[in-house]
Amino acid sequence: MSITVSKGLTLRSDSFEPGKEIPVKYTCDGDDISPQLSWDGAPEGTETFALIMDDPDAPGRVFTHWVLYNIPASRNELPEGVNAEKFIKKGCSQGVNDFRMMGYGGPCPPPGKPHRYRFHLYALDTTLDLPSGVTKSAVLEAMKGHILAEAEIIGLYKRRK
């Protein structure tokens, strides 16, 4: 459950350790703000990045928490507390999550065992021809044939209530 590296691309966070608990601050039980993420080792030819955060342990299906795309190759970090509106003004795009809102929706599992939250970064050789506000499936479909490298980190969260 640590960092997965593909073709030299690495993803990390100063907000939580891979394989460890995501602090309450980044969840629906806290401030529900996005954690800091950074990466390096993008392969030559990278034009943009896409990031998808989801919960594979959600009841019934994989639950999407965050969809970002067309992050310029010149960027190598997402600061803590990415705001959907401000982020879009910087030339990036955010999609809708399964909370039916644009931007980040933090971990919010039902009581019980901890859930895994995957932050999956893709290095792409293109800019995706998609408007803001599309679904994860639309982004995944548009990325087909354009993925140069991938990296993933996983954090855990269990509700105390």
Oligomer: single chain
What's the SSE pattern? EEEEEEHEEHE
Provide the CATH architecture: Alpha-Beta Complex
Computed CA radius of gyration, to the nearest angstrom: 15 Å
Percent of residues in beta strands:
25-35%
Remind me, CATH topology? Phosphatidylethanolamine-binding Protein
- Count of strand segments: 9
Domain module count = 1
Mean pLDDT: 92
Portion of residues within helices: under 10%
Separation of termini? 25 Å
The number of helical segments is: 2
CATH superfamily (homologous) name? PEBP-like
Strand line-up of the largest beta sheet: 1-9-8-4-5-7
Low-pLDDT residue spans: none
Task: Please state the overall shape, judged from the principal axes of the Cα atoms.
Answer: globular
Q: Which CATH class is shown?
A: Alpha Beta
Describe the structure.
The chain has one domain: PEBP-like (Phosphatidylethanolamine-binding Protein, Alpha-Beta Complex), CATH 3.90.280. Helices cover 9% and strands 32% of the residues. It is built from two helices and nine strands; from the N terminus they run E-E-E-E-E-E-H-E-E-H-E. It has a six-stranded antiparallel beta sheet. The protein has a three-stranded antiparallel beta sheet with strand order 2-3-6, with no helix packed on it. Strand 4 and strand 5 (63-72) form a beta hairpin. The mean pLDDT is 92.
What characteristics describe this protein?
161 residues, mainly beta, Phosphatidylethanolamine-binding Protein, six-stranded antiparallel β-sheet, three-stranded antiparallel β-sheet, 2 helices, YbhB_YbcL/LppC-like
